[in-house]
Amino acid sequence: MNVHIRAIVSRLINSGPRKYLPAALALAPVAVFAQVTATFDLPAQPLAESLKAVGTQTNTNLLVAPELVDGKQARELRASLTVDQAITELLKGTGITYRYLGERTIV
After folding, report:
1. Helix H or strand E encompassing 45
2. What is the CA radius of gyration of the chain?
3. Nearest Cα to 31, choosing from 52, 11, 59, 8?
4. Domains of the chain
5. pLDDT in tens for each of the 107 residues of the chain?
6. pTM of the model
7. 40, 81 Cβ separation under 8 angstroms
8. Nearest to 2 by CA among 107, 101, 74, 99
């Protein structure tokens, strides 16, 4: 489980009022999904193409504003990684960040 998400879930579960439990449980599927690994064999190519390939291969909706990735190149990605690790590796050095909107939707 992503360390940041784990800390949030833990705080929500361990905080006094149980009213936060639904929020903690809602985050759990994202945390579990983020830990599933896939084997990537992507060549160096336009960043948009690499992100699309990661989304397709992992059945993830990756929503990216075209102006953020236009003209940017991704290095090759040849490894078994989680979705988080793959996206982080592809975005390294671009200044682009991402976040989950749902279990399988990333923007």
Report:
1. strand 45-46
2. 15
3. 8
4. 1-35 (no CATH), 37-107 (3.55.50.30)
5. 445 555 555 555 555 555 554 554 555 554 545 578 899 999 999 999 999 999 999 999 999 999 999 999 999 999 999 999 999 999 999 999 999 888 888 98
6. 0.69
7. yes
8. 99
